[in-house]
Amino acid sequence: MARNTVVREPEVVSLSEEFERFSLMFRIQHIVLFTSCVLLMITGLPLRFPNSGWAAVFFKLTGGVAASGFMHRIGAMGLIGVGVFHMIYITATRDGRHNFRELIPGLHDIKDVFRNVSYFLGRSKAGAAFGRFSYIEKFDYWAVYWGMVVMITTGLMLWFHDATMSILPKFFIDVAHEAHSDEALLATLAIIIWHFYNVHLNPDHFPMSWTWLTGKISSEKMIHHHPLEYKQIVAERSKSTGGNGREDTS
Amino acid sequence: MLAYRNRFGLRRMLGWALLTVLALLVPAAGAIADKNADCLACHSDKTLTKPSSGGKVSLYVSEAVLMRTLHGQLGCTDCHLGLDPSKTPHAANIRPVMCVNCHNDARSRHTSHKRLVPAGGSPSQVSASCKSCHGSHMSKPLSTACGRCHKAILKEYEESIHGRAVARGVKSAPVCTDCHGEHLISAPSSPDSPVYPTRVVATCSKCHASERIEEEYGIPKQRFETYRESYHGVANRFGDVTVANCASCHGSHDIRPSSDPKSSINKKNLPRTCGKCHAGANKSFAKGKIHVVISRSGQPQLYYVSNGFKWLTISTMMALVGHIGLDLFAKYRRRRSER
Question: Is residue B169 left, alpha or beta, with left meaning phi > 0 and alpha meaning psi from -120 to 50?
Answer without folding.
Answer: left
